Amino acid sequence: MSSKQRASQTEALRFENVTLEFPGSHRPAIEDVSFQIDRGKFVAVIGPSGCGKSTLLNLAAGLLAPSSGRVYFGGEPVTAVNSEAAYVTQQANLLPWLSVRANVGLALKFRKVPKQERAERIAHWIGLVGLTGFEDHYPRELSGGMRKRCAIARALIYEPSIVLMDEPFGPLDALTRLNLQQELLHLWEEQRGTLVFVTHDLNEAIYLADEVIVMSEGPGTIRRTLPVPFERPRTIGSLVESREFSEIYNDLWGLFTSDVRSSDAA
Ligand SMILES: Nc1ncnc2c1ncn2[C@@H]1O[C@H](COP(=O)(O)OP(=O)(O)OP(=O)(O)O)[C@@H](O)[C@H]1O
Ligand SMILES: [Mg+2]
Fold first, then answer.
1. Does 64 fall in a domain?
2. Looking at the CA of 166, which ligand is closest?
3. Confidence class of residue 56 from pLDDT cuts 50, 70 and 90?
4. 194-237 tens-digit pLDDT
5. Which residues contact 231 (CB under 8 A, 6 or more apart)?
6. Domain that holds residue 26
7. 180 domain residue, yes or no
8. Within a domain: 236
9. Residue 64's domain is classified under what CATH number?
10. What are the residues whose beta carbons fall under 8 Å from the beta carbon of 262, sequence distance 6 or more?
11. Which of 22, 59, 64 to mutate to test the pocket of ligand 1 (most atoms within 8 A of CB)?
């Protein structure tokens, strides 16, 4: 087996010295970013607003091309839109003119999955995210949390090789967030695909991820990658009470506040 074949078996996403500068801007959005995410891992990316988290996902999705460096997916350079990636963008991006059923089934329709199978899979996923009974509703008739559930079902339904989620629970209240975090954990623990999850919530990163990539303030660079050693399946309630949880939280908090202190000093 060649080293390239081996790489494509273990590695999902790899950034190699990636810098991205938007045209007309005076400094890069992200600079010299290198990391590797292995298949089947749940990785959280955290960092302050504007540090380049969404830019990083856009590069992974192939929607942006690096100014220098390379992005690889499964060992192959990403040179066009990455069709193996499901992307839940920062704005709940449901199509307003389609019902819940049609939004959830969109990817299956594109992939020409037969009608009967499509209907079964849609019903299954709508059930999993707790939207049974709302199949014929339109996005405007749903609450913020329900829209997020719908977007998550739409992303996971076709079993993509990698899921990119950009602060999917950002604007939600604390209780809804907690419920959705726990649901996402259950869903992912069953599927075990690769998941890259952007958040600026330290707790959320620790609850969910196997590894946390910490980015520094713009231009975004990787400050550190921290492993989260908790066993799975996880229950958020019992994690929060553990001593290891506060230790990891304090580590992350330390990284964050040193960023704030150094920018105060500058
Ligand atoms: N299309 C664009 N054109 C020019 N500059 C951009 C563009 N998109 C993002 N930027 C700049 O790149 C930097 C990184 O933006 P990005 O959206 O990736 O940050 P972020 O970490 O996702 O922030 P947030 O947490 O607020 O969502 C910012 O300085 C932003 O102003
Ligand atoms: Mg963003």
1. yes
2. 2
3. very high
4. 999 999 899 999 999 999 999 998 788 999 999 999 999 999 98
5. none
6. 3-84+161-265
7. yes
8. yes
9. 3.40.50.300
10. none
11. 22
